[in-house]
Design a protein that fits this description.
The protein is mainly alpha-helical and 179 residues long. Helices cover 80% and strands 0% of the residues.
């Protein structure tokens, strides 16, 4: 009988030890998840549709209008950069390909901004408006991934370079709030 009691006590100790280990593991896992949430609070960022739709529509309409102007004037002053990247910006926005928004928008924005810095001005208003489209497209991509500071810098530059803030107001406020 004494031996049976000892075996029961050993089993109970083993069970208690396993429960403590599991409890400790669960506590540790909870702590990891909490810290991960704090560290990566924008992991699953998605721009809410009421903020995304108006700015997307505005940008696509402006970009399409610019492409028509370029075709009608048969201009190639930009070395084809606008003609190549602006349609990709439109496609990225329409397909809600936010990674592509970030990439092609940032490429066009960088190219046009360098052109402005190098020459001191753009040759025409098409370049300025294409810059706006590029900056807004890139801002959409960056905001969707949670890079709100980069997005607000792009939007600020576009507004400083002449973009009317009114068509971007809701999106601008959303990005500003999270930056």
């Amino acid at each position: 009988e004494g031996r049976g009691d000892e075996e029961k006590e050993d089993k109970e100790e083993d069970n208690n030890q396993e429960e403590c280990e599991l409890d400790g593991e669960a506590k540790l896992q909870n702590a990891v998840e909490r810290l991960d949430t704090i560290m990566n609070k924008f992991v699953n960022v998605a721009i809410p549709l009421p903020f995304l739709a108006p700015v997307s529509n505005y940008t696509v309409q402006l970009a399409n209008s610019l492409l028509k102007d370029i075709e009608s004037k048969d201009e190639t002053n930009s070395g084809g950069v606008i003609e190549n990247l602006l349609p990709k910006c439109i496609t990225a926005i329409e397909e809600r390909d936010f990674c592509m928004c970030r990439i092609v928008g940032a490429d066009l924005e960088f190219s046009l901004y360098n052109q402005l810095q190098t020459r001191g001005s753009w040759p025409d208003s098409v370049h300025r408006q294409a810059y706006w489209c590029a900056a807004i497209t890139a801002a959409i991509g960056f905001a969707n991934e949670g890079s709100f500071l980069v997005a607000i810098k792009l939007l600020d530059k576009a507004v400083i370079l002449g973009q009317d803030r009114k068509p971007l107001e809701d999106f601008f406020s959303y990005v500003e709030l999270h930056a």
